[in-house]
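Translate structure to sequence.
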C-alpha cells in the first residue's frame, strides 16, 4: 500500500515511511534559565511583568529538560517515536543575539542530538520558537530589520556547529503569532500593542525565514528546510453562505493564513488584507520578497482549531458569537453548538484539519506537508492508581489522525505528524495551568507519568495505523 488505506480490521493505515514524532519548544520545557551562560530572552522579561502570565509562572524551571533530557529522550524511545521536534533557545547559544557564541549552550544541544541519535530518533530543529534574546528586543526586536539579519547569522552558527546531526530545519514557529500576539494584542512577549510595529514585525519575521533558509543551505545544502505556520481554516456552516460571509471568509483567510503563506510560497502579500496589517513600502526593501520566497522543502502546519463565520451583528452578539476579526460589517465568528471546546476554549473540529490539508495541497501541489503540532489541553490529573486517563485527548487525537489519514487518501502529500506536546509544559500566557502533554509532569517533583494518550499514540506509531475506535477505548 503506498497511500493511506483501510486494513482488514477496519484500522486506517498510513503510508510506509510516514514520520511519527512529538514536539516541544525550548522556553516551554528547558528551565535552567540561568545555567551555563544562557542570556535573557523576551519571555524571561515578559513572564516577570505582573499580570502577563497566569499565577505569575515563568519558564525558569519548567520541565527542567535541560538537565533531564536523557529521561525525556528515553521516554520517546520507549513509546516507539521516530522523531523529536524541539527548538533551540537563541539566547542559550548566543546570549546577546549577536556576537559571541556560548559554547556551553551549544554543548547542551550537541548532547541532546547525540542522545537522540543513540536512540535512533531524528531531530527536527526549530531555530526560533518565540524566545528572542532580550538584547535584540532592546534594539527594536522584530519591528526592525537588523533582527532578521542577526537571525541569519545565528542560523549560520547553528548549521555549522550542530547541522551534522539534524534531519530537518524549521526556521520559525508560527510567525503569525509572534507578530500578532507579541506586537499587536500584546498577550505574548514582548507585549506591545502597536499595529505599525506588528506589520513591520510580520515582514521582518518573513525576511528572517528567507535569509535564514539561505544561511542554513549555504552550510548544509542537503538538509531539508521549511517553516511552521499556524493555519486556521475558515469555515462556513452549511446554509449560511452569502456574498458578505464569503467576503469575510476570504479576508479572514488572507489575514491569518495568506499573510504568511503567500510571501513564503509566491513572494507576494495577499490581496484582501486590511492595509494596517501590511508592512508599509518603506519597510520592504528591493528584493525582499524574492528572498522570502526561497524554495522550501516542506511546510510545517500547526493545527488546533478552525474559525467559523456567519451573518450576524457584531454590536448585538448571540451566545457563542464574537466580533469577526476581519471587521467586515454584518458578519460574526461563532462556535457551532455541536462542537466541543477544549479547556483553552478552542473548538474541536477534525474536519477543519482535513479541509486545511486538502486546501494546502491545492495551493502547493506536491510540497511535502508535516503536521508539526496538533493536540489539546485537557483537565488531566493523576488518579488513585497513579494513572492519567486522558480520554478526551485520546478522542481528540483519534479524530485528528483519522482526518490526516483521510487527507492522505484524498491525495495530500502528508509526510509526518508531531503531537503537541511530548510533555506538559509552560503554556505561555497560561503558565502551568494548561496541560498539553501526552506525558504528565508533576512540576513539584519533575516526575514524568506517561498518560493513556501516550499509550494510545505509541500503538498508532508502532502499527503505522489508527486502531478502530472500540479498540482505542480499551487502551484508556
Ligand atoms: C502553539 C505553539 C506551542 C503551544 C501550542 C499549544 O501555538 O506553537 O508552543 O503553545 O500552541
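Result:
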Amino acid at each position: 500500500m503506498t497511500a493511506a488505506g483501510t486494513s482488514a480490521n477496519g484500522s486506517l493505515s498510513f503510508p510506509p515511511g510516514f514520520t511519527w514524532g512529538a514536539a516541544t519548544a525550548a522556553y516551554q520545557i528547558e528551565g535552567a534559565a540561568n545555567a551555563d551562560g544562557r542570556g535573557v530572552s523576551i519571555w524571561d522579561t515578559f513572564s516577570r511583568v505582573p499580570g502577563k502570565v497566569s499565577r505569575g509562572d515563568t519558564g525558569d524551571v519548567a520541565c527542567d529538560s535541560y538537565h533531564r533530557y536523557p529521561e525525556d529522550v528515553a521516554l520517546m524511545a520507549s513509546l516507539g517515536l521516530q522523531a523529536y521536534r524541539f527548538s533551540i533557545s537563541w539566547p542559550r547559544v548566543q546570549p546577546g543575539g549577536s556576537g559571541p557564541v556560548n559554547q556551553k549552550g551549544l554543548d547542551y544541544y550537541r548532547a541532546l542530538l547525540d542522545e537522540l541519535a543513540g536512540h535512533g530518533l531524528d531531530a527536527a530543529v526549530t531555530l526560533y520558537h518565540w524566545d528572542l534574546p532580550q538584547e535584540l528586543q532592546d534594539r527594536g526586536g522584530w519591528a526592525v530589520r537588523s533582527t532578521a539579519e542577526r537571525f541569519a547569522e545565528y542560523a549560520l552558527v547553528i548549521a555549522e556547529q550542530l547541522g551534522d546531526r539534524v534531519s530537518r530545519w524549521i526556521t520559525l514557529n508560527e510567525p503569525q503569532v509572534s507578530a500578532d500576539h507579541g506586537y499587536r494584542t500584546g498577550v505574548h512577549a514582548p507585549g506591545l500593542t502597536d499595529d505599525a510595529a506588528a506589520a513591520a514585525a510580520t515582514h521582518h519575521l518573513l525576511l528572517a525565514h528567507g535569509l535564514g533558509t539561505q544561511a542554513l543551505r549555504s552550510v548544509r545544502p542537503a538538509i531539508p528546510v521549511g517553516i511552521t505556520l499556524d493555519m486556521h481554516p475558515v469555515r462556513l456552516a452549511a446554509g449560511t453562505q452569502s456574498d458578505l460571509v464569503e467576503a469575510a471568509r476570504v479576508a479572514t483567510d488572507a489575514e491569518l493564513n495568506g499573510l504568511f503563506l503567500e510571501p513564503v510560497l509566491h513572494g507576494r502579500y495577499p490581496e484582501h488584507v486590511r492595509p494596517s496589517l501590511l508592512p508599509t513600502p518603506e519597510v520592504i526593501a528591493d528584493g525582499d520578497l524574492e528572498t522570502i520566497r526561497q524554495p522550501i522543502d516542506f511546510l510545517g502546519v500547526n493545527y488546533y482549531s478552525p474559525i467559523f463565520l456567519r451573518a450576524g451583528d457584531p454590536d448585538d452578539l448571540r451566545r457563542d458569537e464574537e466580533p469577526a476579526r476581519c471587521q467586515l460589517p454584518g458578519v460574526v465568528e461563532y462556535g457551532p453548538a455541536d462542537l466541543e471546546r477544549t479547556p483553552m476554549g478552542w473548538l474541536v473540529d477534525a474536519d477543519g484539519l482535513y479541509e486545511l490539508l486538502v486546501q494546502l495541497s491545492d495551493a502547493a501541489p506536491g510540497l511535502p506537508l508535516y503536521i508539526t503540532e496538533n493536540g489539546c489541553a485537557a483537565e488531566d490529573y493523576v488518579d488513585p492508581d497513579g494513572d492519567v486517563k486522558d480520554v478526551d485527548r485520546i478522542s481528540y487525537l483519534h479524530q485528528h489522525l483519522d482526518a490526516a489519514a483521510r487527507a492522505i487518501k484524498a491525495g495530500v502529500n502528508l509526510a509526518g505528524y508531531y503531537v503537541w506536546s511530548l510533555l506538559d509544559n509552560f503554556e505561555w500566557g497560561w503558565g502551568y495551568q494548561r496541560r498539553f502533554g501526552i506525558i504528565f509532569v508533576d512540576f513539584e517533583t519533575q516526575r514524568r507519568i506517561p498518560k493513556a494518550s501516550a499509550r494510545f499514540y505509541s500503538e498508532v506509531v508502532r502499527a503505522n495505523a489508527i486502531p478502530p475506535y472500540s479498540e482505542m477505548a480499551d487502551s484508556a
